């Protein structure tokens, strides 16, 4: 096993990685910005290094500062968590060239999946279904209009280099495309340094379902079930659950097999996620997959996902431990031939944002009391007295519940939300009270438009 691990991230994911590292007897090293010096992940690490000011570009995205911290602390490996440098192929290559272990997929896999157009093309060759769309960037508005005419409206205009639901716009007709094309190009250039865009068929009513994969040290790729991620605002997830209430055993078999093919196509190692859209034949999903006609590859996230805990609870494993084992060249701690999911898990992302418009609401945390009890887990990045600053993502904690059935998990989630005491910053706990009592969500028959309809 790796002996010392530098966690190149912050907040709840840094704290969560440190927890597993210490359980395994691995020396855990934190890096932090000046703004995060008082957060729990810093004090809980065996050693901590300040890598710069609050601006992420000068701290958590500062690869030179991260590598300098690794050298000064004698770290053997670097775990990037999610966001920041986690899907930066150049950083992964530099880490390995420096003689350190990169806890993640190889740089070639990150590069291959980092460009949405290239990823789509690779998946099509591998036999993974892809939605109708462009096979090369729409280099100008005329090319975008021609592509949309062939694909058929409505279309999605997407940043080729983007991720996490960023850099997307829907065009219902040519007039809208003329407006949105330039906006997405400009956003993509500003955010990702690459203004390339692709045009893809837009499905107004879909479900967003993803498959957790793990590329083992011996070269095998295994699928660890699916997660339902359709409760979203601005194309970004708020709730995830596993298994998906829309996926039948037959559909699950096809989804998981496609995800494995996707991983094998890029010789994937370590943890990753294959994201898909489920397209219904009819509005009624019936909660058993019978209404789902087809699924399409959306993208592959070459890192650990925010929502990985629901998979951990359903499969009874620790994905961070498995990441470390793969990186160290060790066999998994579970039998890949005897994976048995049990029960149902739901994750709620507790954000510092107002519960109506979902706009950020940072501030000092005055009260923070986490719910406890059977089947309740909280992965948090803060405690009372900490300040949620405007410099980073608004995620404060993840409330995860598990139970033998989905209905029981929903009831457990309701009780846990009610017991979560949080004052100070604006927060979205009231939204979850509303969602968990919403008949559409409770039925399992919902899609990515559920939040707009609730509003």
Automatic annotation (TrEMBL):
Keywords: ATP-binding, Biotin, Ligase, Nucleotide-binding. Residues 120-328 form the ATP-grasp domain. InterPro entries: ATP-grasp, BC-like_N, Biotin_carboxylase_complex, Biotin_carboxylation_dom, Biotin_COase_C, CPAse_ATP-bd, PreATP-grasp_dom_sf, Rudment_hybrid_motif. The keyword Ligase applies. Its EC number is 6.3.4.14. Residues 1-455 form the Biotin carboxylation domain. This is biotin carboxylase. It comes from Micromonospora qiuiae. The gene is accC.
């Amino acid at each position: 096993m790796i002996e010392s691990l530098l966690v190149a991230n912050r907040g709840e994911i840094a704290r969560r990685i440190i927890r597993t590292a210490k359980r395994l007897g691995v020396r855990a090293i934190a890096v932090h910005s000046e703004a995060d010096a008082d957060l729990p992940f810093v004090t809980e690490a065996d050693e901590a290094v300040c890598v710069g000011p609050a601006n992420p570009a000068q701290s958590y995205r500062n690869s030179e500062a991260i590598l300098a911290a690794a050298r000064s602390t004698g770290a053997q490996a670097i775990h990037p968590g999610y966001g920041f440098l986690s899907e930066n192929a150049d950083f992964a290559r530099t880490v390995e060239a420096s003689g350190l272990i990169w806890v993640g997929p190889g740089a070639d896999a990150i590069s291959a999946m980092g460009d949405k157009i290239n990823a789509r093309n690779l998946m099509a060759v591998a036999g993974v279904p892809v939605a109708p769309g462009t096979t090369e960037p729409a280099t100008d508005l005329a090319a975008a209009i021609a592509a949309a005419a062939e694909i058929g409206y409505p279309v999605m205009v997407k940043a080729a280099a983007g991720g996490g639901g960023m850099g997307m716009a829907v065009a219902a007709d040519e007039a809208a495309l003329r407006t949105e094309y330039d906006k997405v190009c400009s956003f993509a250039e500003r955010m990702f340094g690459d203004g390339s865009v692709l045009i893809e068929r837009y499905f107004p009513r879909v479900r967003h379902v993803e498959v957790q994969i793990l590329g083992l040290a011996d070269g095998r790729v295994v699928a660890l079930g699916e997660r339902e991620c359709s409760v979203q605002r601005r194309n970004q997830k708020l709730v995830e659950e596993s298994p998906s209430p829309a996926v039948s055993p037959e559909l699950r078999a096809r989804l998981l097999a496609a995800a494995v093919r996707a991983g094998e196509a890029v010789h994937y190692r370590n943890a990753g996620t294959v994201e898909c859209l489920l397209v219904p034949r009819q509005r009624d999903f019936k909660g058993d997959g019978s209404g789902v006609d087809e699924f399409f590859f959306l993208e592959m996230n070459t890192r650990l996902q925010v929502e990985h805990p629901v998979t951990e609870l359903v499969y009874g494993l620790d994905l961070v431990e498995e990441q470390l084992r793969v990186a160290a060249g060790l066999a998994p701690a579970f039998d890949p031939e005897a994976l048995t999911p049990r029960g149902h898990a739901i994750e709620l992302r507790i954000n510092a944002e107002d519960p109506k418009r979902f706009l950020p609401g940072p501030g000092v945390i005055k009260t923070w009391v986490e719910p406890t009890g059977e089947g309740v887990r909280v992965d948090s990045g803060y405690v009372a007295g900490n300040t949620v600053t405007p410099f980073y993502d608004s995620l404060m904690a993840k409330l995860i519940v598990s139970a033998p059935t989905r209905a029981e998990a929903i009831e457990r989630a309701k009780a846990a939300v009610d017991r979560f005491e949080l004052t100070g910053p604006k927060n979205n706990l009231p939204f979850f009270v509303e969602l968990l009592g919403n008949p559409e969500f409770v039925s399992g028959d919902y899609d990515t438009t559920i939040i707009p309809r609730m509003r």
